[in-house]
Amino acid sequence: MVSLILSIILIGSSNYKIMLARIYYQNDEQRLKILQNHPDILAGNAIQKWFDVLIDEKEYEEFKNMNLKIEIQIPDMKEYMKENARIFIDFGKYYTYNEMKNEIMQIASQYPNITNLDTIGFSWYNKPILAMKISDNPQMDENEPTGIFTGVHHAREPIGCSICMDFIRWLCQNYNQPGGAGDTATFLVNEREIWIVPVVNPDGYVYNEIDPQGMWRKNQRDNDGNGYFNSNYDGVDLNRNYGYMWGYDNWGSSPNPPDETYRGPSAFSEPETQAIRQLCNSAKPQVGINFHSYSNVIITPWGYINDYPPEPDKTIYLAMADTMNDYNGWPYGNSSATVGYTANGTSDDWMYGEQNQKPKCFAYTFEVGSAFWQAVNDTNIIIQQIHQTRPCMIYLLYRAQHFVNIREKIYVDKVHFKKGFVTKDPFKSIPEKILSNSKIYDIMGRKTDKFDKSGLYILEDEKGNYRVILLK
Ligand code: CA
Ligand code: CA
Ligand code: ZN
């Protein structure tokens, strides 16, 4: 049976061109039909109503027969990668795993007072999964508000590594320096514990250096147990392997080993997700971003159903996303609202949803850019994407304080927060009685009596209830 599947795939790949196509839907019926016919979605955008998929000519005809609008993005993937082979060497402007490793080790030795480079686990092929902690007294657990940032759960999404490496460098180079960036970096290093994992999936990432299409997504688990890696059957989708509502249904998460979204034989079956679980259980982050690509959206839980966490967390999630949207203009919401499909076993559902072994973490997934290897030849694109994401990382780390210490008491009016809390002039839009009887905390958790910067403020009334104010 296995050899039969193998030969069909081999014949298929020699006879058919594989193209990257964008398929548009107009309604829910069409959306579900696409997902049913082609569950391996490269990227989706629920606002613009499209999915990007890899299809052969036969599938192209099938979609055309469904009367769907199709745009061919790349007519022949193999040809495309052949043409780009030269700039693809060493991943072009992106980091290879070894480049990441060398640089992170160099930074660790250059900044020993504020960094702690840790190996949090090993992949199936024994590659270290590196995590860098950045904080003052980095060897100690100082019980400071904590954030986590990760890249490359999915092997073909290198921008996450670039964003993580930039943030490491930015924090270290600006620490104790004069000026605005210096002040911010110094505050964050002194008052926060920041964990950064640039490459969660080293095996899959390294495999893309030899994969002719650079399109490998999963890790390299030996699904068929034949003792070696075969790309037509092996590998687990690490962002379907986390243990909160794992395997809830088969939408966006597959029980079949060859599939791109294969969730693994059991929750946390993979050494890579076990490493992140262990890190979260010990470091206890309260905020975080898992970087993926692509489609320029900010995703909140839930992933496994089209719903949100209970209040007030839903409002906190969306209010923070709304502020991050100021930095990049990206739409935000749960997976259904942003990428157009549900998926169980994702990192964010577990990071937020698991609240017994560790506190809840307000974790987001960012889908960065407009293609997996978008910037392979262009550093400017990477810089632009860093400018769209770094402020969000800084912002969330600032935010960690409030939602850590007072999150159990946060009170949110049953008003649609867009209307009720987004304001240009709090003195006009918030009843005077509430303002005059409340303590006001600024973005850094300090008591203040003025609203002088845009961002989140918190009001604490006489009864100890909290209100979120988003000042624009
Ligand atoms: Ca510290
Ligand atoms: Ca195998
Ligand atoms: Zn991804």
Short description:
36% of the residues lie in helices and 18% in strands. The protein is an alpha/beta fold and 472 residues long. The protein folds into 3 domains: 88 residues, Metallocarboxypeptidase-like (Alpha-Beta Plaits, 2-Layer Sandwich); 309 residues, Zn peptidases (Aminopeptidase); 60 residues, no CATH class.
List key phrases describing it:
472 residues, alpha/beta, Alpha-Beta Plaits, Aminopeptidase, binds calcium ion
Count every beta strand, where a strand is a DSSP E run of 2 or more residues. Answer: 17
Return the average pLDDT rounded to an integer.
Answer: 86
Mind telling me which CATH architecture of the largest domain this is? 3-Layer(aba) Sandwich
| Count of domains | 3
Number of helices: 17
Helix content: 25-40%
Task: From the 3D structure, determine the CATH topology of the largest domain.
Answer: Aminopeptidase
What about the largest sheet? 8 strands, mixed
Radius of gyration: 23 Å
Structure characterization notes:
Helices cover 36% and strands 18% of the residues. By secondary structure, the protein is α/β, with parallel strands linked by helices. The chain folds into 3 domains: 2-89, Alpha-Beta Plaits; 97-405, Aminopeptidase (3-Layer(aba) Sandwich); 412-471, no CATH class. An 8-stranded mixed sheet has the order 5-6-8-7-9-12-10-11, sandwiched between helices. The longest helix is centred in the last third of the chain and has 27 residues, at 379-405. The chain is globular. Mean pLDDT is 86; it is low at 1-14 and 403-424.
